[in-house]
Design brief:
Strand order of the largest sheet: 1-4-3-2-5-6
CATH class of the largest domain: Alpha Beta
Number of domains: 2
Order of helices and strands: EHEHEHHEHHHEHEHHHEEE
CATH topology of the largest domain: Rossmann fold
Bound molecules: pantoate
Structural class: alpha/beta
CATH architecture of the largest domain: 3-Layer(aba) Sandwich
Oligomer: single chain
Helix content: 40-55%
């Protein structure tokens, strides 16, 4: 696997791939890779001639300095994991490479960024868009792979490529959430959990799963109440939000329409913020 650190080398690589008339799949990450990331890489390998991943902890998407400082960084191990998975290239730029000067661009997502994660992490999706557009402009992939755990991010990136870079014709592929055996959604942040919080965390998915099945015929507001109360009853967990939204508009719904509605949750397990979601 070739490790690339400069944008100019990514441009050159893409030119060579174009000359070969081959397709390129892209898996952008912030590192601390787990099986969720690997499933994205494997999907990309299946659907493209070449696969490139990137590892860059993007400071502009962190609205909280401590969160940025604590974000796990395991680059050497990540390179090994990608190599073993069969990834062809990995782009690992430094801060100066991606932000030689301050990025002052402000994106308009037509309200998609004003709910849930966007509401609780102001500026987060603008930062995601800043780095993703820079990466997409360099890599120019045919397909880019994102995890469904970041449900709102996937919706916003879909909107972003259509509105801001239609000429790139990048297909956004959203892949299923990968879970631990006990149901906890894989996340780079899981390694920051204390043993006690790690033990409590699977209750998040268990509760989502239970209430989405048992109560799918009652009003969303009632399900929200029940899920929130059930999780908050666990001393080590604190729900930040739980919303049941339309898959396209991300707006809260008054009625569940199977296949078109998703329940999205953010929960604090101690200092670690976990997100998850479930389709209704
Ligand atoms: O999902 C992530 O890991 C990040 O938000 C992304 C898409 C790599 C941008 O930094």
């Amino acid at each position: 696997m070739l490790v690339i650190t400069k944008l100019i080398d990514v441009f050159e690589l893409k030119n060579r791939i174009n000359i070969e008339k081959k397709s390129l799949g892209f898996v952008p990450t912030m590192g601390a890779l787990h099986n969720g990331h690997i499933s994205l890489v494997l999907n990309s390998i299946k659907e493209n001639d070449y696969t490139i991943a990137s590892i860059f902890v993007n400071p502009t998407q962190f609205n909280n300095k401590t969160d940025l400082l604590n974000y796990p960084r395991t680059v050497d191990k990540d390179i090994e994991i990608l190599e073993k998975a069969g990834c062809d290239f990995v782009f690992i730029p430094d801060l100066n490479e991606m932000y030689p000067e301050e990025d002052t661009r402000i994106f308009d997502f037509d309200g998609l960024d004003e709910v849930m994660e966007g509401k609780h992490r102001p500026g987060h999706f603008n930062g995601v868009a800043q780095i993703v557009t820079k990466l997409f402009e360099a890599v120019k992939p045919d397909r880019a792979y994102f995890g469904r755990k970041d449900f709102q991010q996937a919706a916003i990136i879909n909107f972003l490529v259509k509105k801001y870079m239609p000429e790139f014709n990048i297909k956004i592929i959203t892949c299923d959430i990968v879970r631990e055996k006990d149901g906890l959604a894989l996340s780079s942040r899981n390694i920051l959990l204390t043993p006690e919080h790690r033990k409590a965390a699977p209750i998040i998915f268990k509760t989502l799963n239970l209430f989405s099945k048992v109560y799918s015929d009652i009003k969303p507001q009632k399900i929200i109440e029940k899920v929130t109360n059930e999780i908050n009853a666990v001393e080590l967990l604190k729900v930040e939000y739980f919303e049941i939204v339309d898959n396209e508009t991300l707006m809260p719904v008054n009625e569940i329409i199977p296949g078109k509605t998703t329940g999205c949750i953010a929960v604090f397990a101690g200092n670690v913020r976990l997100i998850d979601n479930i389709s209704f």
